[in-house]
Amino acid sequence: MRKLLVALGVVAMGVGASACSSTSSATSTTTSSVPGTEASTTTIPSSPAAGSNRTATQAMRAALRHGGSQSSLHYVSTSVEDGMTTTIVGDVNQISGTQTIVVSYQGVKAAMVIELVGHEAYFRGAATAIEVLVNLTARQSAAAAGQWVSVVPADSVYQSTAAALTVGSVMSELALSPPITGARTVVAGGRTVVEIAGAWTGEGITAKNRATGELQVTKGAASLPVRFSGVMPPTTAAGGFTANLVVSKWGEAVHVVPPAFAVPLSRILKSTTTTTQPVVV
Question: Is 3 helix (H, G, I), strand (E, B) or coil?
Fold first, then answer.
């Protein structure tokens, strides 16, 4: 979710210039459909809790810690900026996962699938999506488009490509930064949850952006995060941005199988490197 923030403006221009068909994963036993939005949650406030900032921080940490210990989960992340909607559907376990990313802008869509199996990541998608989400050049992205490409830890783009593809990395996406407040108990979608508010920072978002977030966690000793909402207000240089991430299906069966064949990213980079020949006098 957060890694997309630095790329959203470029995606909008690229998607608007070139229509790209959706790409679906055929190597994962977990099927990820991409709805426009997750089922809506209606929040009915109940009596506010008298918890302090410390209580809210403890509640957040406990939920993220317990969530991080679970075997697997499903999530749907939807973000909106300047008429562009980015939807990410993911199914992850402790060491692997798969996500489908669809960017919609003015009726045109660009799609990409990313998988992680152990310490190797794989992606396949449209050139526009690859250029922005993997941060390759236009020439490299064109060479990689439409085929499975493998990425290993030695590749400079590995960390960003493999983000949010394990249970632990998804939990890190939900963490709020100080000042953390709240711990108010409410009824949302027919279940009792605790609302925790705080600053929203991370890759692409700094304190200067004044972004805020709210995390809902289930109430009780074995609490789990269920929903994250973030808002980055507009500035004179950029428009506003909103994001929502819903977590569900804890403990679902997630088994990701690597593609039968994938081209190493290093090979693509080598084949698209421009070399300058010396001038013969």
Answer: helix
Among 216, 189, 195, which residue's Cα sits nearest to residue 42? 189
Cα-based distances in Å from 36 to 40, 131, 196: 11, 24, 26
- Determine phi and psi for 182, rounding to 5 degrees: 110, -120
- The pLDDT averaged over each successive group of 10 residues in the chain (281 residues) is 44 48 47 38 39 84 97 95 88 97 85 95 92 89 96 94 93 93 83 92 79 93 94 80 94 95 96 66 52
Question: How many Cα atoms sit within 13 Å of 78 on the Cβ side?
Answer: 13
DSSP H helices, the chain, are 8-17, 53-68, 127-133, 138-144, 158-161, 167-173, 265-271
Whether 63 contacts 223, CB under 8 Å: yes
Q: Classify strands 241-248 and 72-81 as parallel, antiparallel or unpaired.
A: antiparallel
Q: Do residues 143 and 77 touch, judged by C-beta distance below 8 A? A: no
Question: Backbone phi, then psi, for 271, in 5-degree steps?
Answer: -75, -20
Q: Which CATH number fits domain 2-269: 2.40.160.20, 2.50.20.20, 3.40.109.10, 3.30.565.10?
A: 2.50.20.20
Judged by DSSP in three states, 208 sits in helix
Structure tokens at 116: 């992680």
Structure tokens at 12: 């909008």
Domain ranges of the chain: 2-269
> Is residue 178 within 8 Å of 168, Cβ to Cβ?
no
DSSP E strands, 25-131:
43-45, 72-81, 84-93, 96-105, 108-117, 120-125
